[in-house]
From TrEMBL, chain A:
Main location: periplasm
The organism's taxonomic lineage, starting at the top: Bacteria, Pseudomonadati, Pseudomonadota, Alphaproteobacteria, Rhodobacterales
InterPro entries per UniProt: Peptide/Ni-bd, SBP_5, SBP_5_dom
Pfam family, one: SBP_bac_5
Protein name: ABC transporter substrate-binding protein
Organism per entry: Histidinibacterium aquaticum
Signal peptide stretch: 1-21
Entry superkingdom: Bacteria
UniProt similarity note: Belongs to the bacterial solute-binding protein 5 family.
Coiled coil: none
Automatic annotation (TrEMBL), chain B:
Top-rank lineage group of the source organism: Bacteria
Membrane protein topology class: Multi-pass membrane protein
Family note: Belongs to the binding-protein-dependent transport system permease family.
Cellular component, GO, one term: plasma membrane
Domain annotation ABC transmembrane type-1: ranges: 94-311
Organism: Histidinibacterium aquaticum
One GO process term, biological-process aspect: transmembrane transport
Keyword Acetylation: no
InterPro entries membership: BPD_transp_1_N, MetI-like, MetI-like_sf
Places the protein is found: Cell membrane
Assigned keywords, A-Z: Cell membrane, Membrane, Transmembrane, Transmembrane helix, Transport
Any one Pfam family match given in the protein's UniProt record, by short name: BPD_transp_1
Protein name per its UniProtKB record: ABC transporter permease
C-alpha cells in the first residue's frame, strides 16, 4: 500500500466510521465452481456461497449450531420422524422478495432432486411441507435425531426468482446448457453479488436489509474474492498488501508471516483427520497370488500402528502444524475422547507382534498416496516408508494426483492408502456410515478396506435412528471400542488450519475452513 | 500454387486428427473426473449415473468420435468444472493470453535484436561480455523461479508492481484488454518479462552470431573500403541480412510463447488459457483439455502453414519443382 492510499484510507475511515467503507480482499487457492447452491458439495464453492445465501440452521465459527433462517425447531414428541421448523419473519431476499415457507419447500425439493449434489447430505428427508407462511414440517425416513446437523449447507433461494429465471432445475453438466443460477444469486445472506468472473474475481457488497445487520459484527462493507493458485504468489500478495486475508497458507511460510508485525496467523484444529486404510481381505491386490495377506492379521495391523511415529511426522514433516491422532475422528465430533485419541510408538513391541503373527521376516507392500490433496501428503507417506522399514515392512510408495488416487481407493484397487475425512455432521455416525460399514451402494461408500463387521453395520443403522441420546452415546462408545480393536485404519493426525491476515482483520478460524465474513470485525 | 496449398491443408487436417486421437487416448490416464464432480456423500449409483451421462463408460475412440462430431458443429461441450460452455470460457480467457504473448514477444524481439547488435559490434567490450554472461542466466533459470524472484523484488520489497492478476481490464464486448488502464499495464510488466526473457536471450544470441558472420563477409569489407559510415554498414547492410533467420525463429517461437505461457500464468495468477488448462488437468475436465489441445494444435499448424507459404512466395526454387514440397 502506498502512503497516499494509506492516508486516504485512514481519512475515509475517520470520516465515515470504521465499519462503513472497509473492503476485505480475500484470497485462497481455488475458486467456487458455481453459484448454484445445490450443484456442488465442495468446500470453496460453499464458502463463497455462504456469504450470499443462508441455510435454516447454521454452524458458527465455534462449530456450534446456530439459528439462521429458522428460529426454532423441535421434533414431534409422539412421532420422532416429524420435525417442525419455525422460520424467521421479516427476512427479505436481495431482490426484495419476502422469505416464506414456500421458498423452504422449493429449496429442499431442489436440493433433493436428481442432479443435486447435496441430496446425499439430506438423504434422510422424506418430505417437506409448509404448515403456514412461517412454519415448515420435515418428515424423515425413520427417526433422525441429527437432522438439524445435516442442514447447515442446504442453502435457501427464492422460488419465484428461480421460476421467473427458468432455473428451477439444478444444472446437469451433460445437459448442454448453463443455468441462470450458476451465475446469479438471490439469497438472504449478508452480502449481495456485485460481479463475478469465474476463476478471476468475485465482488460482493453488504446487503442493507439484512435481517441480522444488528446481530453480527459485519465489519466489512465489501468483499473482493480472488483465487490465487500458486502458494508463493498467494503469500507474496499478502506481504505486499494486495490482499488482506488468505486461506490455504503454505506451512513453510507461517514463520515468515508470524514475524511480520503487520500480519498475523490464526489457527485451529481442522475438521479433517488424515489416516491410512488397510486391505483386510484374504488376498492383496498387488501381492503374489496365494501368498496370503499379512494385513488380514490384526496383530500385523496393530504392529504397523505402533510403528508410526506421529510426533516425528508432526515435528519434521508438518513443522508443528498437526495434532497426532489415535482415532480417525476430529476432536470436536460427538464420540471423541482423550482416551480414544491416545496412541504411542513402540518399535520393540511392534517387532514382537510381527514375530508372534508369523511375519517376523517382514513383507513388502505398495502404499498409494495422493500428492495434491492434503497438506504435505506425499511427504507424510515418504516418512512412513522409513518408519515401517524399522519393523521389516518394505513399502513401495506410489504417489500420484488425487484424480488418479481416489479411483484406486474406491475401486478397491489399493491395499494400503492414504485418506482424509471431515465430518460435516460433527457426529460419529457419519464416520461409521461411510468408512466402517460394509461397502455397498448406500453405506460404506468410502470404505476401501474390505472390512465387514455385521454387528457394527447393524449398530451403525441403529444409532442413525436412536432418539434417546444417552443410550445413543453409549452405543457409539461401544462401537469405537470394537472399531479400535480391529485397527483397519491407521490414524495419522488432525490437520491444523491456518488463516493469515492483516493484523487489523478480526476473524476466528472455522474448523470446516468455511469463511463467514459476517462474523469478521475490522479495526 | 493452389495444389500446393490444398496438399498442405490436407496434411494439416491429418495432423490435427492425430493430435486429437493421441490426446483422447491419454485422458483416461489423467484420472477420473467423476470423483471431483460429486461430493463425499455420493452413492455408487450417483457415480455410475454420472459416468454414463458423460459417456465415460465408453471406449476413448467413441468419446473422441463424439467430440469430433460436436466440434465440427462448433460445440465443444460444457466444462465439467465450471458447468459453462467451453467455447465461452476459451474466448473469455484467450485475450489475456494473447495480450501477454504479444507484449512479451515484442519485448523479446526488440530487446533481443538491440542487444544482439550491440554485443556483435562491441564484441570485445566489457558491456557485451556482461550481457552475454547474464544471458546465460536467462536461458538456464526456470521460468517459475524468475517469476517468483521478480514478485519478491518488485511486488513485496519495492511495492511497485502487482504480484498477481491482470489489473483492471476494459471490456470491448468481444475482447477484454488491459492496455487501456494504468493497473492493467502495470500488471503486464512482470509476467511479460518472465515469459519473454528466455525468448529474448535466444533471439539475442541468434542475432549476435548471424551478425558476426555477416560482418566477416566480403561485401561488408568492400562497404568499409568504399568509406561508408560505420552506422550505415552495421544497420543498413549487415542487419538486413541478419534478419531472415531471426524472422523465421520468431514466428515459430510465437507459437510456443502462447502454448507455454502455462507456467508464467500459474505463477502470476494470469487469467489466460494456460491457467485454465492447468486447472482442467487437475480436475480432469476433459472438454476443456480437449478444446485447449485442439486450439493449440490448430495454432501451431496454422503458423507452420503460413511459414511454408511464405517460403513458397520467397523461394522461387519451390515454384519450379513443386514436387519436392517438403524441405
Amino acid at each position: 500500500m502506498t502512503k497516499q492510499t494509506l492516508l486516504a484510507a485512514t481519512a475515509m475511515s475517520l470520516l465515515m466510521g470504521a465499519a462503513q467503507a472497509e473492503t476485505l480482499r480475500w484470497a485462497r487457492a481455488g475458486d467456487a465452481l458455481t453459484l448454484d447452491p445445490h450443484a456442488q458439495n465442495e468446500g470453496p464453492t460453499l464458502a463463497l456461497m455462504h456469504q450470499m445465501m443462508e441455510p435454516l440452521v447454521l454452524r458458527n465459527p465455534d462449530g456450534e449450531l446456530e439459528a439462521a433462517l429458522a428460529t426454532d425447531w423441535s421434533v414431534d414428541p409422539d412421532n420422532p420422524e416429524v420435525w417442525t421448523f419455525s422460520l424467521r419473519e421479516g427476512v427479505t431476499f436481495h431482490d426484495g422478495a419476502e422469505f416464506t415457507a414456500e421458498d423452504v419447500v422449493f429449496s429442499f425439493e431442489r436440493a433433493l432432486s436428481e442432479n443435486s449434489d447435496m441430496k446425499g447430505l439430506i438423504s434422510s428427508v422424506a418430505s417437506v411441507e409448509a404448515l403456514s407462511d412461517y412454519e415448515v414440517e420435515i418428515t424423515t425416513n425413520g427417526p433422525n435425531p441429527l437432522l438439524p446437523a445435516a442442514l447447515p449447507n442446504i442453502l435457501m433461494i427464492d422460488k419465484d426468482w428461480a421460476e421467473a429465471n427458468d432455473t428451477v432445475d439444478v444444472q446437469d453438466v451433460e445437459g448442454g446448457e448453463e443455468t441462470f443460477a450458476s451465475q446469479n444469486v438471490n439469497g438472504t445472506g449478508p452480502y449481495m453479488l456485485v460481479s463475478r468472473e469465474p476463476d478471476v474475481r468475485t465482488e460482493m457488497t453488504a446487503f442493507e436489509d439484512y435481517w441480522g445487520a444488528a446481530d453480527f459484527p459485519i465489519g466489512y462493507s465489501d468483499i473482493v474474492y480472488t483465487p490465487i493458485q500458486n502458494p508463493s504468489t498467494r503469500t507474496a500478495a499478502l506481504f505486499s498488501g494486495e490482499v488482506d486475508f488468505i486461506q490455504d497458507v503454505p506451512v513453510q511460510d507461517l514463520e515468515r508471516i508470524e514475524a511480520d508485525p503487520s500480519l498475523k496467523i490464526v489457527s485451529s484444529p481442522q475438521n479433517r483427520v488424515i489416516f491410512y486404510g488397510l486391505n483386510v481381505s484374504d488376498e492383496l491386490v498387488n501381492g503374489t497370488p496365494d501368498a496370503g495377506n499379512p494385513l488380514a492379521d490384526g496383530q500385523v495391523r496393530e504392529a504397523m500402528n505402533m510403528a508410526l511415529n506421529r510426533d516425528a511426522i508432526r515435528d519434521v514433516v508438518m513443522r508443528g502444524q498437526s495434532i497426532p491422532a489415535g482415532v480417525i475422528m476430529p476432536p470436536f465430533v460427538n464420540g471423541w475422547n482423550e482416551e480414544l485419541n491416545s496412541v504411542s510408538t513402540d518399535i520393540e513391541a511392534a517387532k514382537a507382534l510381527m514375530e508372534e503373527a508369523g511375519w517376523g521376516d517382514g513383507f513388502s507392500i505398495q502404499l498409494d498416496c495422493p500428492n495434491d490433496r492434503y497438506i504435505n501428503d506425499e511427504a507424510i507417506c515418504q516418512a512412513t516408508v522409513g518408519m515401517l522399514a524399522q519393523i521389516g515392512v518394505t513399502v513401495n510408495l506410489n504417489a500420484q494426483p488425487k484424480a488418479q488416487h481416489f479411483p484406486l481407493v474406491n475401486g478397491l484397487e489399493s491395499d494400503f492408502y492414504m485418506l482424509g475425512w471431515g465430518v460435516p455432521s460433527y457426529d460419529s455416525e457419519y464416520i461409521f456410515n461411510f468408512l466402517y460399514h460394509t461397502k455397498g451402494d448406500l453405506y460404506g461408500t468410502w470404505n476401501g478396506t474390505r472390512y465387514s463387521n455385521p454387528e457394527l453395520d447393524e449398530m451403525t443403522k441403529a444409532i442413525a435412528a436412536e432418539v434417546d441420546l444417552e443410550a445413543r452415546d453409549e452405543m457409539i462408545a461401544e462401537m469405537w471400542d470394537m472399531a479400535k480393536a480391529d485397527t483397519v485404519y491407521l490414524p495419522i493426525h488432525h490437520q491444523v488450519l491456518n488463516w493469515a491476515m492483516d493484523s487489523d482483520v478480526g476473524a476466528a478460524v472455522d474448523p470446516d475452513d468455511q469463511v463467514k465474513v459476517k462474523y469478521f470485525t475490522a479495526d | 500454387m493452389l495444389a500446393y496449398i490444398i496438399r498442405r491443408v490436407a496434411q494439416s487436417v491429418l495432423v490435427l486428427l492425430i493430435t486429437g486421437f493421441v490426446a483422447f487416448s491419454m485422458f483416461s490416464y489423467v484420472g477420473d473426473p467423476v470423483e471431483n464432480m460429486l461430493g463425499q456423500e455420493r452413492t455408487q449409483a450417483d457415480v455410475d449415473r454420472l459416468r454414463e451421462q458423460l459417456g465415460l463408460d465408453q471406449p476413448f475412440v467413441v468419446q473422441y468420435a463424439k467430440f469430433l462430431g460436436q466440434a465440427v458443429q462448433g460445440n465443444f461441450g460444457l466444462s465439467y468444472r465450471q458447468g459453462r460452455p467451453v467455447s465461452d470460457i476459451l474466448s473469455e480467457r484467450l485475450p489475456a493470453t494473447l495480450e501477454l504473448a504479444a507484449v512479451s514477444g515484442l519485448m523479446a524481439l526488440a530487446g533481443g535484436i538491440g542487444l544482439g547488435i550491440f554485443t556483435a559490434i562491441r564484441r570485445r567490450g566489457v558491456g557485451a561480455n556482461v550481457i552475454m554472461t547474464l544471458s546465460l542466466v536467462g536461458v538456464s533459470l526456470p521460468t517459475f523461479l524468475i517469476g517468483i524472484l521478480l514478485i519478491y523484488v518488485f511486488a513485496v520489497q519495492l511495492g511497485w508492481l502487482p504480484s498477481f492478476g491482470r489489473g483492471e481490464v476494459t471490456d470491448l464486448g468481444w475482447w477484454t484488454t488491459g492496455f487501456l488502464t494504468v493497473s492493467g499495464l502495470k500488471a503486464l510488466v512482470l509476467p511479460a518479462i518472465t515469459l519473454g526473457l528466455y525468448q529474448m536471450t535466444l533471439i539475442m544470441r541468434l542475432v549476435r552470431t548471424e551478425m558476426l558472420e555477416v560482418l566477416r563477409m566480403d561485401y561488408i569489407r568492400f562497404a568499409r573500403a568504399r568509406g561508408l559510415r560505420e552506422r550505415a554498414i552495421n544497420f543498413r547492410h549487415a542487419l538486413k541480412n541478419t534478419l531472415v533467420p531471426v524472422i523465421t525463429i520468431t514466428g515459430l517461437q510465437l507459437g510456443s510463447i502462447i502454448a507455454f505461457a502455462i507456467i508464467t500464468e500459474t505463477v502470476f495468477q494470469w487469467p489466460g488459457v494456460g491457467l485454465l488448462f492447468i486447472n482442467a488437468i487437475q480436475f480432469v475436465d476433459i472438454p476443456v483439455m480437449a478444446a485447449y489441445l485442439m486450439m493449440i494444435s490448430v495454432m501451431f499448424v496454422a503458423i507452420n502453414l503460413v511459414v511454408d507459404l511464405l517460403y513458397f512466395a520467397i523461394d522461387p526454387r519451390l515454384r519450379v519443382d513443386g514436387r519436392s514440397g517438403g524441405h
